[in-house]
């Protein structure tokens, strides 16, 4: 056997090199992820290790960070992680952290403290950039067909990354809070599902991406309690799709949009997510005697019945509209206040039931209250990222400037994207591509509880960012591809090859159909 070696002459060598540099789909995917990671690193470390994020700089010692944050979310995560590393377990005095928040950020902080060879803040910045570069590479992959277009896409991303949802909670405060990472995992799961519906492929590939999406959703749940609704929403959507697939098969109807494959993908996502959660849920049941991952829900109802006229209610609760019960039902509010003063405070169940009754009894007041606070929160300019007062972060008191003003252009931009995403998803669902129902279902599922009792900006950020799926959904709407299901007797026409690095061990693993 002989091996052809390119001639060393100028023309032959030049042709060989040019062939190797051709922008194949896999190479573009790799270049895209590297470019995304580089972009996010620049945003996170634009002043090196001295870059200021929120109330800290990246090179600060964890003990100083914990001192600065105090008992806030980030401070409690970090102090509990230090306790875990020092003692090998969470001592009783820090168990309250696991009562309020899922364990994910504590575990992550502890692993970084124990294993990372570089500083804590820099490591968290690297992890954030890695996760969000994966998200953005999946979202932008359909639009990367050449290096020039890659440059255009990156330019558009710079504009999007300049909005406050990204600046504040992904690359500023969110570096030490769980919100930025949790939102990244959540959007990654959605993007994987939408991208698979766009591309199609063999049943095994649908199941694989369903498992990966389930892993991403489980990561979001372990990092932030607001994502505990995700299993219910995804499982309900999976049941709906399975029923539709079974009815279509029973009636011998053509299964449009690979409906059986979509059902398998959603079932795989649901099962993998629940399996990953089960060990910790069992631990919580055995050690704490509860079935919930956290006990945060009861706090929402306590906040709802705090009377700002007689109690010292924090400003962030007032501005978020959390005192809903007292706003729409002063009589019940006064009764709860008197009972508490008499030493008979209401239970969380009583507070919840009373809130439901008050909403049903005074619907006009409820709608008026939500109509005032919801737009205010949606258009709010969360936190003035990178707007810091000159402070010596290494000692003394740390202060920062913040903005509670409104930013209508940003809010309108994300509202338009969300409207497009939900509208296109519904149209696609009517055409048989039912997996895309997950977009509006999860949007409503995440928003509903906070619209009822507790609206705070960070919980609206995932809803805003769902709109980033809109361009991919529009591609599916415009695209034309074969929708007949592929069985084992059929051979796919070609390999997709442009799968993201997360999903590509080699370009031959996928065997997807092209549109």
UniProtKB/TrEMBL annotation:
Keywords for this protein: Membrane, Transmembrane, Transmembrane helix
The keyword Transmembrane helix is annotated on this UniProt entry: yes
Transmembrane segments: 24-46, 118-139, 146-163, 175-194, 206-223, 229-247, 259-281, 411-429, 434-453, 459-477
Record bears the keyword Disulfide bond: no
UniProt-recorded name of the protein: Glycosyltransferase RgtA/B/C/D-like domain-containing protein
